[in-house]
Design goal:
heterodimer, A: 113 residues, mainly beta, six-stranded mixed sheet, five-stranded antiparallel sheet, 11 strands, 0% helix, B: 114 residues, four-stranded antiparallel sheet, 10 strands
Chain lengths: 113, 114
């Protein structure tokens, strides 16, 4: 049973436009969500997170939105840059085992110059 | 400051052999995690160490998998009698504390079982 779903395996956008990466989850116990970015041959690097008590968190060009009723979150990147091209993983965890991240399969973002 | 390092970066082995993967966490990080990523899949949690507490082994897929950590330093993940389905990238991460938040990942070890 996949608790975190990233239904789009890939996304292609033009430089300067907005990238929207989506993530759905099924575990209602999740109360903290993170986005990681991964370049080839490197480990994932933390990008941005959001607690379930919030519905938005912003950091520079990156904004994460959380819709708890829909069990949906999204990552917005604006403006997109070619260096943003990477695989983006959504992850969630719950207070009871708040160290154990459950990851989605990832979305490959390609930003075209 | 150095990040999380893992060795080897690549390992090719024959089915049935044992392999040992190493992780050096960031100095001062008390929590250490192992994940694996099979082709086309997300990262799967394997095991978690926090200080001197008993590790959470709930993600280990079988008793062929084991891991050790000496204090708050190096960890080794051992896979005995490897099978082809063990082929994956094995990722180690560390963090300052156990509470939810940022985990810093190493580059991973790509294991191929022939």
């Amino acid at each position: 049973d996949q608790q975190v779903k990233q239904n789009s395996p890939s996304l292609s956008v033009q430089e300067g436009r907005i990238s929207i990466l989506n993530c759905d989850y099924t575990n209602s116990m999740f109360d903290y969500f993170l986005w990681y970015k991964k370049y080839p041959a490197e480990g994932p690097t933390f990008l941005i997170s959001i607690s379930s008590i919030k519905d938005k968190n912003e950091d520079g060009r990156f904004t994460v939105f959380l819709n708890k009723s829909a069990k949906h979150l999204s990552l917005h990147i604006v403006p997109s840059q070619p260096g943003d091209s990477a695989v983006y993983f959504c992850a969630g965890n719950s207070g009871g085992s708040n160290y154990k991240l459950t990851f989605g399969k990832g979305t490959l973002l390609t930003v075209n110059p | 400051g150095a990040g999380v390092s893992q060795s080897p970066s690549n390992k090719v082995t024959e089915k049935g052999k044992d392999v040992e993967l190493r992780c050096d966490p960031i100095s001062g990080h008390t929590a250490l995690y192992w994940y694996r990523q099979r082709l086309g899949q997300g990262l799967e949690f394997l095991i978690y160490f926090q200080g001197n507490s008993a590790p959470d082994k709930s993600g280990l897929p079988s008793d062929r998998f084991s891991a050790e950590r000496t204090g708050e330093s190096v960890s080794t993940l051992t896979i005995q009698r490897t099978q082809q389905e063990d082929s994956a990238v094995y990722l180690c991460a560390s963090s300052l504390k156990r509470s939810g938040g940022e985990q810093f990942f190493g580059p991973g070890t790509r294991l191929t079982v022939l």
